[in-house]
Write a structure and sequence with these properties.
The complex is a heterodimer of chains A (about 375) and B (about 1250).
Chain A (H helix, E strand, L loop, with lengths): L6 E4 L4 H11 L3 E4 L12 H13 E2 L2 E4 L6 E4 L2 E2 L2 E7 L6 H13 L5 E7 L9 H14 L8 E6 L8 E7 L10 E2 L5 E11 L4 H14 L6 E8 L9 E10 L4 E9 L9 H4 L7 H18 L8 H9 L5 E6 L4 H14 L3 E6 L4 E7 L12
Parallel strand pairs in A: 1-2, 7-8, 11-16, 12-13
Antiparallel strand pairs in A: 2-5, 3-6, 4-5, 8-10, 9-10, 12-14, 14-15, 16-18, 17-18
Helix pairs in contact in A: 1-3, 1-9, 5-7, 8-9
Chain B lengths: L1 H9 L14 H24 L10 H18 L15 E6 L6 H13 L10 E4 L5 E6 L4 H10 L2 E7 L6 H12 L4 E7 L7 H18 L6 E3 L3 E2 L2 E2 L1 H12 L7 H5 L2 E9 L3 H6 L5 E10 L8 E4 L3 E4 L2 E5 L21 E3 L4 E2 L1 E3 L4 E3 L13 H4 L1 H6 L2 H10 L19 H7 L3 H8 L2 H8 L9 H14 L32 H4 L1 E8 L2 E8 L1 H35 L5 H15 L3 H6 L1 H10 L2 H6 L2 H9 L2 H10 L8 H7 L26 H6 L9 H16 L3 H10 L4 H41 L12 H7 L8 H22 L3 H8 L6 E9 L1 H5 L7 E5 L7 E10 L13 E5 L2 E5 L2 E5 L5 E4 L7 E9 L6 E5 L11 E11 L4 E14 L3 E5 L5 H6 L4 E4 L4 E7 L20 E5 L9 E9 L5 E3 L17 H8 L28 H6 L25 H64 L2 H19 L1
Parallel strand pairs in B: 1-3, 1-4, 4-5, 5-6
Antiparallel strand pairs in B: 2-3, 2-14, 7-8, 9-10, 9-21, 10-20, 11-12, 11-21, 13-20, 14-15, 16-17, 18-19, 22-27, 22-29, 23-24, 23-28, 24-36, 25-26, 25-27, 28-29, 30-31, 30-35, 31-34, 32-33, 32-35, 33-34
Classes of the chains: A alpha+beta (about 375), B alpha+beta (about 1250).
Pfam families (chain B): AARP2CN, RIBIOP_C
Protein name (chain B): Bms1-type G domain-containing protein
Subcellular location (chain B): Nucleus, Nucleolus
Chain lengths: ~375, ~1250
């Protein structure tokens, strides 16, 4: 056993992405200068929590953090999966932050993964669990992930600052590898579904959000149904809040989503919305309108996925067998670009990126890295 | 035919057969009688063959038969595997294997001779030949050691197993077969040689039959075994070689799962490119080497790690695709190969005409081919000279003896292409010698300068020009080997001539030492660069019109946008410059930079950064990579402002990790009508036809790339939809017909897929070889004509996938294609590997092929491998746990220490001390990871001088793990120290109280099967003597309770499981780093060590089996006390029955008088008879004695007679000898006589 050669990286950016790709490609990484100059240097609590989660689902992974937390050594192990795992995601980021890497990792595990995650189910920064349920999981199915056992169950909701939400995620393993896709037909939006929820506030909030959202969307489509999900009691978590998730389904089976949640943000960090109106929470009507127009914006972009899911789509494409995958996305989001770069660094997969002028979309093509589920046991 | 003749010659002369009448009456008679007899026969047959006899008699049997038939059918089906290789495949590797002295090299030589008409002096390294119009072959001779065999099995596409027919099978063949089977099982063909040693035809026939059947049992019934009858003039017969070549040429090579998923290269050329100076300073320094070979398997990407078999894991420093040294002939319609196309390439064997390097081509001219034709200039006159081709001119000038100074020293000339180089090689010997040592350095110093791949023809024509111009002046030795003075480091080694014309100065010369052959290489520096520049200038000038306008538009737009990326700024500047200045020369100055910057305005490069910086990054640390990436952080226009808001900055590496891209700032009011209209068609409520058109149009345009994309990208961000709409419409109009084309394209693709599927099924549809008539094809095609539906569907899917892949990739240009999918399988590659141990170069042996195998993601990591292993049935012993074995898995070979185990019912892995005799077991060992289903071969001994079968076990990988969980049974033994009622204190079972605590609640048992439970560590109050009382508290005494009181003499057992550590040891086999004849010595087994040090096997006396003698137990009689007896009920009371010995019943018989009479009479008669018998016996005895006496007498007489006879015979002998002897014999006889008398 020789010396381990670490891939040296810098900064806290794209932390999840790096850990995910490092685990998948089993390259040890060494991240330096993690918020070295910040007032609070080192890893933040959600990042540490993510590392803990990785340790939980995988076997023999080594994590070394220096005293200030500004340097991290990570040697990936084998993703084991397993049942009855529980992870507390903490109160600095929502569950969505953890779900994004976890659903990819779970696919390449030894055993199917079933895990209970606790924390915020909805917030304004990360995609909500509703989005995962209605948009992300169908996307996975396109890549040949077996539909049975692919499930996300929301037990209770929780919003910042105190959380209290709980979900159960179960992900099957891929038997051999994913399937390369050619997914360039975004189709036409045939229906829009959504969920508006509220915790520890009046039902009225949901209804007004619904109403406002429909007000915009009804110009375009009659087939809109927004469910209300009013939680009360222990299911409502620990802090008041409300939010809405919209998913547009197209004729070709694409799911384009937009979501947000409003609550009293925790302490220093404040979401995008609070930028304009300081500390003033936006009223539900505005939220509904805003999210509806965000959804329309995403639809206008014209990719097969929304901008949030671009990164995940690229990762899945890169993990395919050595066939050509072809996808169409709208404007490349900054996160998507970062994903593309990291995919090149870790997996050695480069995408051919071609703008499609007539529809103002971008078509990406790649030959997958041929990752196989190696940790799977054969009988 | 020759064989038959021989057979006839050997057999006894056959009798001349009866010649039947051709004419006359008898002939007529016969012809008449024949049909009659036939009729009779047929009638008889008809009688015999009762049609009912073969009909079904039982439905059950019929059903069973049918089931069997379908089962057999299903057995033939395989799940189709996707072979992703496109383009022409790499040459198929034909490995010729066999025990020593069986004729391997001769076979290769004969085959090469058959294909190329060249005589191969010796077989070293792979030999590539073009065997047909669509097929190339690479012959490799398998070395005779097991390591070589393992490596060869990993790259063989076809294995020719040579078998000495006169001797029979040897272990090597079976070993190799076994290795092949476990590494994917490529095609196999047996070849019997040495058949001319048989004198008896019948025996030959029998042997063939026997060997064939043995071969079949090993592989499958009907496996091809080829017979080479014998040698003629030291070679195999032409006809047979021809037939063998045919067999090879029609062979199909199915994809093998390991190889399809891993790139690999069989190295056919190997060079050491270390700087000679460093080698001189330290001959044991790590070397840089280049490896050449065809890429096989799957595509190879840059940055892939490789494993060089027998050396270790390395990262490839550089990969270059070279021109194919042995290209397939053009696809012109003609039958057979022209002589010109019968190429072959074997750099290690020292032949082959051309050697390609990254930047040069070597031409080797053999000694016997160098024939200097007379210069015909004088005879034919000047007109002829003019007619002559440039090339001819060049050769003529070469052949001119004026220039050729020393033919004897340098016969092999390498030319880069220009005539000067050729003349250059006729350098004065002293300068040549000087340079020889230094040249690799030059090669690689200069390599950078001459990177441009200029086409050969161009240079040739230019050569000609120069030759003509310089015809008058003589190019002499002094203007040779010019190196421009800018190479200051090597300056002293070169002499520069000042008065040379510039054209002549610009080349250097190189000499290669390769296998003792001197080769020189000429490299040009400047002029080529200039040429290239000119070319590129022209190209750019062409492009410029469009380019400048594009960039201008671009820059305008950039100004609109709030942020400017660096390159767009540059771009703008250049554009301005170019347009403002009318001066062409100035305008030209910026061309190169401009085009470079123009290229950058490409989405791909925006994302991935400039290719130059990237390539430099690749070599350096990734930390630097990060930095450079940050410098050119992509900021899409229009998003720039948002980003700055979010805090995404060039320098900031600590941005928030968030996949959501929120742009509320750019929210539009979706209530407005025109906005709604703009996306109306994206909804089902909109115009369906428009929407459908939209998708297809975009598909059509997605195909073409180039400049229009660039300027479109400028518009791309622009959200002025009105304009956009119009442009879209124009697009649409133009693209309506494109739509039709697209669907047609789709249909065509599907058709192609179907056709390919059909071809796969009926492989004979396209004859792969040219010189084949249809017969052989139909003979050997074992196509699966009738597969099941499912398999058919899978095949179709795969073919469709392939077609899609091909179509998608074909529309990319070459460089991006290499970036995207890596180097394609089938290309000839040059790999550069640095810091290889010098032993590899030192001990390089071309007879041992170097295998470079690419490693997939995660395969360089180590962990616990879990394999399903079975001891080979021919290996004599079972394998012992922890005895090191050598494992071949994937590309690797390594020594490791396995632990054998077997899975229990409850999923626990129980350790085994030895492998089971005839069963699979699990073996777990530490080593580099390999994916599940990989085949494994285990060997214990590498030495060649071994008669036994060397393969000890075969296995397949089940899974790999980072933790090994193998349990072993453990029995803790304890003795009671104190027994209370049902509680006892047990001592000796545990060593500490902590240990007791660990086992609380565990079940224990005594020898007498009394069950119990461990409760707690005994307190010193109850069990131990307290410390106060002078004793010391003993640790590890456990309090246990039992179901009954136990005795002090009982032994208490606790049965438990303990985990066994798998040793973290693995040792890669570095066989390429030592002389090949030396056997690699790794870790030794304990038994070997004991044998070496003469140590006895330690014996545990208690473990010895002894014969147990048990005394028969003697029980005392049961004594019941009187009182008790009285109290007992009668049934339980001991009855007074005296035990008698054989109770006999004597009954008194009272006889009647008559009866008595009869009885007495009988008695009398008996008495009489007895008496008679007595007498008779006496008589007989007497007679016996008499007879004996007589017999002894007779015996004596016979003895005498025998003696007499012997004497007579001796006498006869004696008569031959001298008289003295006879007299002496007489004396002897007399003495005999006297003796006999006595």
């Amino acid at each position: 056993m020789g010396k381990i050669s670490y891939l040296r990286l810098k900064g806290s950016q794209n932390f999840r992405l790096r850990l995910l790709l490092s685990t998948l490609s089993s390259t040890p990484i060494l991240i330096e200068d993690i918020r070295a100059d910040a007032t609070w240097p080192g890893l933040l609590s959600h990042e540490v929590s993510l590392l803990r989660l990785l340790e939980k689902v995988s076997d023999d992974c080594h994590v070394e953090i220096n005293e200030t937390g500004s340097k991290l050594k990570y040697k990936p192990g084998i993703v084991m999966g397993g049942r009855n795992l529980v992870h507390d995601c903490g109160v600095s980021r929502s569950i969505g932050y953890f779900l994004e890497p976890l659903i990819v990792l779970g696919l390449f595990g030894k055993k199917p993964l079933t895990i209970r995650l606790k924390g915020f189910t909805n917030d304004s920064k990360d995609p909500s669990v509703d989005t995962f349920k209605s948009a992300t999981l169908p996307m996975l199915k396109r890549f040949g992930v077996p539909p049975e056992g692919l499930e996300l169950k929301i037990e209770s909701r929780g919003v910042p600052p105190h959380g209290g939400g709980e979900i159960i995620l179960s992900i099957p393993i891929v038997q051999d590898s994913l399937k390369a896709i050619s997914w360039i037909d975004e189709g036409m939006v045939k229906r829009i579904r959504g969920i508006s929820f509220s915790t520890r506030v009046s039902v009225q909030f949901e209804n007004s959000m619904r109403h406002a959202a429909r007000g915009i969307l009804n110009h375009l489509l009659p087939d809109i149904y927004i469910f209300t999900d009013h939680k009360a009691g222990p299911q409502a978590g620990k802090s008041p809040g409300y939010g809405i998730t919209l998913v547009a389904e197209t004729t070709s089976g694409c799911f384009i989503s937009a979501d947000t949640a409003i609550s009293y943000a925790s302490g220093k960090e404040d979401g995008m919305i609070e930028d304009e109106e300081n500390k003033e929470l936006s009223p539900p009507e505005d939220v509904g309108e805003q999210i509806a127009s965000t959804l329309l914006g995403e639809i206008e972009q014209g990719g097969v996925v929304d901008s949030t899911h671009q990164g995940l789509l690229f990762i899945l494409c890169a993990l395919c067998p050595q066939d050509v995958s072809k996808v169409r996305v709208g404007q490349l989001a900054p996160y998507g670009i970062e994903v593309l770069r990291h995919i090149r660094d870790f997996l050695g997969v480069k995408f051919v990126i071609k703008p499609d002028p007539s529809t103002r979309t971008v078509i990406l093509k790649c030959v997958g890295c041929g990752l196989k589920n190696l940790s799977r046991k054969i009988s | 035919m020759a064989k038959e003749k021989k057979q006839e010659g050997n057999s006894e002369q056959p009798h001349k057969s009866h010649r039947s009448r051709k004419v006359g009456a008898s002939a007529k008679k016969k012809s008449k009688s024949k049909p009659n007899s036939n009729d009779e026969l047929s009638k008889e047959q008809k009688k015999l063959h009762n049609p009912k006899a073969f009909a079904f008699t039982s439905t059950v049997k019929a059903k069973r038969l049918q089931a069997r038939a379908t089962e057999k059918e299903q057995q033939r089906l395989h799940i189709p595997m996707m072979d992703r290789s496109t383009g022409e495949p790499a040459p198929f590797v034909v490995v010729v294997q066999g025990p020593p002295q069986v004729g391997k090299s001769l076979l290769i030589k004969c085959l090469v001779k058959h294909y190329t008409k060249h005589n191969l002096p010796e077989v070293r390294g792979p030999i590539t030949i073009v065997s047909g119009k669509q097929r190339r072959l690479q012959f490799v001779e398998c070395p005779n050691d097991i390591n070589g065999m393992i490596d060869c099995a990993k790259f063989a596409d076809l294995a020719l197993l040579l078998i000495d027919g006169s001797y029979g099978f040897e272990m090597e063949t079976f070993e190799f077969l076994n290795i092949l089977q476990n590494h994917g099982f490529p095609k196999i063909m047996g070849v019997l040689t040495h058949l001319d040693k048989f004198k008896d035809v019948k025996k030959l026939k029998k042997t063939k039959q026997r060997l064939k059947h043995r071969f079949w049992t090993e592989i499958y019934d009907g496996a091809k075994l080829f017979y080479l009858s014998g040698l003629i003039h030291g070679k195999y017969t032409k006809r047979e070689i021809h037939n063998l070549a045919r067999f090879i040429s029609v062979m199909k090579f199915p994809p093998l799962s390991w190889r399809v998923s891993h790139p690999y290269i069989l190295v056919d050329r190997f060079e050491d490119i270390t700087h000679p100076e460093t080698v001189r300073m330290n001959s044991k320094c790590n070397r840089n080497v280049t490896l050449y070979g065809y890429l096989r398997g799957c595509n190879l990407k840059k940055g892939t790690k490789v494993h060089i078999a027998g050396v270790g894991d390395y990262r490839l420093d550089d990969i270059t695709a070279l021109a194919d040294p042995c290209p397939l002939p053009s696809a012109a319609k003609k039958k057979g190969l022209r002589d010109k196309e019968k190429l072959f390439y074997a750099p290690m064997s020292g032949i082959g005409d051309l050697l390609y390097d990254k930047d040069a081509v070597y031409i080797t001219i053999k000694d016997d081919f160098v024939q200097y034709s007379k210069d015909e200039v004088d005879a034919s006159g000047t007109q002829r000279v003019k007619k002559r081709d440039h090339g001819v001119e060049m050769v003529k000038s070469l052949q001119n003896p004026e220039y050729l100074l020393d033919e004897t020293t340098e016969k092999k000339i390498s030319i880069f292409g220009r005539s000067e180089a050729a003349s250059c090689s006729t350098d004065a010997p002293d300068s040549g010698n000087q340079r020889e040592a230094l040249e690799p350095a030059e090669q690689y110093g200069s390599g950078i300068q001459d990177e441009d791949g200029e086409s050969e023809e161009d240079t040739h024509t230019e050569d000609g020009d120069r030759i003509e111009s310089s015809d008058g002046e003589k190019i002499l030795q002094k203007n040779l080997s010019m190196k421009t003075s800018d190479d200051s480091s090597d300056e002293e080694n070169y002499f520069t001539s000042d008065h040379q014309p510039p054209a002549a100065r610009n080349f250097k010369e190189q000499i290669n030492f390769h296998d003792g052959r001197v080769r020189r290489k000429a490299i040009f520096e400047n002029d080529m660069d200039i040429d290239h520049l000119k070319d590129s200038d022209d190209d750019e000038a062409d492009d410029n019109d469009q380019g400048s306008s594009d960039t201008e538009i671009k820059s305008d737009k950039d100004e609109d946008a709030s942020s400017h990326s660096d390159f767009s700024d540059e771009d703008e500047d250049h554009a301005r410059d170019g347009d403002d200045m009318g001066n062409i020369s100035k305008w030209k100055e910026f061309l190169v930079e401009r085009t470079a910057s123009r290229k950058n305005v490409n989405l791909m490069q925006l994302v991935y950064g400039k290719p130059v910086s990237e390539s430099s990054n690749e070599k350096q640390d990734s930390s630097e990579k990060e930095e450079s990436e940050d410098d050119e952080f992509f900021r899409p226009k229009g998003e720039g402002n948002k980003k700055s808001k979010e805090g995404i900055d060039d320098g900031n590496v600590d941005i928030e990790d968030c996949s959501k891209f929120i742009h509320y700032a750019s929210e539009k009011d979706w209530r407005s009508e025109d906005l709604i209209e703009s996306i109306r068609d994206r909804f089902v409520t909109g115009d369906w036809s428009k929407a459908a058109l939209r998708g297809q149009v975009s598909e059509a345009t997605s195909g073409d790339n180039g400049e229009d994309n660039d300027d479109v990208f400028g518009e791309f961000e622009d959200l002025e939809t009105g304009q956009k709409y119009e442009s879209n419409q124009t697009d649409r109009l133009g693209n309506v017909h494109k739509d039709d084309e697209l669907t047609a394209e789709e249909r065509r693709r599907k058709k192609l897929a179907l056709r390919a599927k059909f071809d796969a099924q009926y492989d004979s549809s396209e004859s792969p070889d040219e010189d084949n008539d249809g017969k052989s094809d139909t003979k050997f095609s074992h196509g699966q004509t009738d597969g099941s539906e499912y398999v058919d569907k899978l095949k179709e899917e795969i073919e469709l996938r392939k077609q899609v892949n091909m179509a998608e990739l074909n529309e990319l240009d070459d460089t991006t294609r290499i970036e995207i999918e890596g180097y394609r399988a089938g290309t000839y590659l040059r790999l550069e590997v640095s810091s290889v141990p010098f032993e590899m170069v030192e001990n390089f042996d071309p007879a041992h092929a170097i295998l470079v195998g690419g490693l997939a993601l995660g395969e360089e990591n180590v962990g616990y491998m879990q394999v399903r292993l079975k001891r080979h049935r021919w290996h004599k012993k079972v394998l012992k746990t922890r005895d090191p074995i050598i494992v071949s898995m994937g590309w690797r070979r390594y020594q490791t220490v396995p632990i054998y185990a077997i899975e229990d019912r409850n999923g626990r892995y129980r350790m085994l001390k030895y492998t089971p005799e005839h069963m699979h077991c699990v073996a777990m060992f530490w080593g580099p990871l390999a994916p599940p289903h990989t085949g494994v071969v285990a060997v214990q001994n590498l030495s060649n001088n071994q008669a036994t079968f060397r393969i000890t076990a075969t296995a397949t990988v089940l899974e790999f793990n980072h933790a090994a969980k193998i349990m072993k049974k453990i029995k803790l033994v304890g003795y009671p120290t104190k027994v209370f009622k049902k509680t006892a204190l047990i001592e000796g079972m545990f060593t500490s109280d902590l240990e007791v605590a660990r086992f609380e609640g565990a079940a224990v048992r005594t020898v007498s099967k009394i069950r119990g439970q461990v409760k707690k560590a005994a307190k010193d109050e109850i069990g131990n003597k307290s410390i106060k009382k002078g004793g010391y508290a003993k640790e590890g005494i456990a309090r246990c309770t039992f179901e009954d009181k136990i005795k002090m003499g009982d032994i208490v057992f606790l049965r438990a499981w303990t985990q066994v550590e798998v040793p973290c040891f693995y040792n890669p086999l570095t066989t390429a780093l030592q002389p090949r004849d030396k056997t690699w010595q790794g870790m030794k087994t304990v038994a070997e060590l004991r044998r070496e040090h003469n140590l006895p096997v330690p014996v545990n006396k208690d473990s010895l089996y002894q014969h147990i003698e048990r005394k028969a137990k003697k029980f005392n009689p049961l004594v019941i006390p009187k009182r008790l007896e009285e109290a007992l009920p009668f049934s339980s009371k001991p009855k007074n029955i005296t035990v008698r010995k054989q109770p006999r019943e004597i009954t008194a018989v009272v006889m009647e008088p008559r009866e008595r009479k009869v009885h007495t009479l009988v008695q009398h008669l008996q008495l009489i008879r007895n008496e008679k018998m007595k007498k008779r016996n006496l008589k007989q005895e007497a007679k016996k004695k008499e007879r004996e006496v007589e017999r002894s007498k007779e015996e004596q007489i016979s003895k005498k007679r025998q003696r007499e006879e012997r004497r007579g015979s001796l006498r006869k002998l004696g008569e031959i000898t001298a008289l003295q002897m006879s007299s002496w014999l007489l004396v002897l006889m007399s003495s005999y006589k006297s003796l006999a008398a006595n």
